[in-house]
Design goal:
The chain has 361 residues and is α/β, with parallel strands linked by helices. The chain contains 13 helices and 15 strands. Strand 4 (55-60) and strand 5 form a beta hairpin. The two termini are 46 Å apart. 39% of the residues are buried. Residues 11, 14, 16, 36-42 line the site of adenosine-5'-triphosphate.
């Protein structure tokens, strides 16, 4: 069990943790979410004692690990950390990477460390790579090795800091599936992640961090479907709905594409749907609504429903009544129409941005 009592971490110019309180029971799998800079990494780095808290207590199995005189190596033995950027040793091959700390710290024999290592490599699906060096492996494979290395130390608690966010999107799934497999064991896991569907699928509890602490703590259903507090509501809503504002004649489709990629990753959107969302945004912004841009900015929202797999793209703009069906770009309109399941336009004279194009995917 880990108890956090009035935990505080201050830096010269920032106070990421002002007053953090929580009780984490053995075997709980907890996702930590929240806006950038709210102290998610700082929290798990404090728990692992990679950072020394400036106040409060972290009580691990009854002992305050922040107390003066406490031997932090004892706490570290019970915990393992998986970093965003793997941190494998480049000069050691895969099996050596996994054996080293077992031999040096746990004083296992080489034979035992090797056998444990091979068992874990099998578990993460990479037994055939034992003699390869990290730079001969893909990012997803390196992260799976890093997870195996952490597991080799038999930690009671595993801390993950955005374990898939440095990976190419094609490799996220393989690492998520290894972590999903671990979540079924009895280990306590704290996972900082931006991938909400992943979080929802594996965890029993979610910490939403904001304003110097755990702002809301609840089940995935509470946090994602029925958040109770304002900032949580806003954060969850922003995750569900992507908003792009296009102002000025030169629209940066590549930049918008990156935002759409990120949104699709967070919401687990299949490639086919993602392609259609990109196409709808590009046709609308770069071709069909171009004439409008001279007068008014366009706001595009994308909302995906995980339940029925549909996505809705809405474009809002001001100015005179302008139906993109009459934009003079019949080809683009046809391309869009034939790719999506419905395309409609309405004019709502009372709204701030009275023109609305609605695309269903
Ligand atoms: N070593 C440090 N020295 C000074 N300030 C720091 C240090 N580490 C973190 N901070 C500050 O503490 C705050 C919280 O940082 P932290 O990395 O924990 O945020 P985060 O929630 O993990 O954000 P992200 O989602 O971007 O990873 C930030 O304002 C950051 O600038
Ligand atoms: Mg972080």
């Amino acid at each position: 069990m880990i108890e956090l009592e009035h935990l505080e971490k201050r830096y010269k110019n920032a106070v990421p943790l002002a007053d953090v309180n929580a009780v984490i029971h053995d075997g709980e799998v907890i996702s930590i979410i929240g806006p950038s800079g709210t102290g998610k990494s700082t929290l798990i780095r404090c728990i692992d004692m990679l950072e020394r808290p400036t106040g409060g207590k972290i009580i691990l199995d009854g002992e305050n690990i922040c107390a003066r005189g406490y031997d932090v190596t004892k706490a570290r033995r019970k915990m393992g950390m998986v970093f965003q950027s793997f941190h494998l040793f480049g000069h050691l091959n895969v099996i050596e990477n996994i054996m080293q700390a077992q031999v040096d710290i746990l004083k296992r024999s080489k034979k035992e460390a090797y056998e444990t290592g091979m068992k874990l490599l099998q578990r993460v699906g990479l037994a055939s790579k034992e003699n390869n060096y990290p730079d001969e492996l893909s990012g997803g494979q390196q992260q799976r090795i890093a997870i195996a290395r952490t597991l080799a130390m038999d930690p009671e608690v595993i801390l993950f800091d955005e374990p898939t966010s440095a990976l190419d999107p094609t490799m996220v799934g393989e690492v998520q599936s290894v972590i999903r497999d671990l979540a079924r064991m009895d280990k306590t896991m704290l996972i900082v992640t931006h991938e909400m569907n992943f979080a929802r699928a594996i965890c029993s509890r979610v910490f939403y961090m904001d304003q110097g602490g755990i702002y809301e703590d609840g089940t995935p259903e509470q946090i994602f479907d029925h958040p109770q507090r304002d900032l949580t509501k806003r954060f969850v809503q922003n995750l569900r709905v992507l908003t792009l504002t296009i102002d000025g004649e030169y629209f940066d489709m590549a930049g918008a594409g990156t935002e759409i990629d990120c949104y699709c990753l967070q919401n687990d959107i299949p490639p086919r749907t993602k392609y259609r969302i990109c196409l709808a945004v590009e046709e609308l912004a770069s071709h069909l609504l171009r004439p409008v841009l001279a007068h008014a900015p366009i706001r595009i929202t994308v909302e995906y429903s995980g339940k029925d797999g549909n996505a809705e793209v809405l474009a809002f703009y001001g100015g005179d009544k302008f139906d993109p069906a009459h934009s003079g770009n019949g080809f683009s309109y046809q391309v869009l129409q034939s790719t999506v399941s419905s395309l409609s336009y309405r004019y709502d004279p009372d709204a701030d941005q009275p023109n609305v194009v609605k695309v269903l995917i």
